[in-house]
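Chapter summary example.
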Amino acid sequence: MIQFLMIKIFKIELLYFFAILLVLTFIQHPDLLSSPFARVTLMQKNENYFHPLLWTLSVYTVVGIFRFMYKLIRAVKNKFVK
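The structure predicted for these 82 residues follows.
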């Protein structure tokens, strides 16, 4: 049962990660919608393959910290306000 729950949580977190990746991609590179091949060619030319993942990991970490703080505040509030 615990293993199933962990797989479910992992899938949800992976979905969050890829959603952030897509949002950041389209915010930073709006030309990706009009000419995706040119953008990929430019990325290969500059050899910056990992910068999208680094940006996404940074934003995912910040969002994760805020999510953790929100859960912590809710837990403390629920414990003391009854």
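To summarize the output: The chain is about 85% helix and 0% strand.
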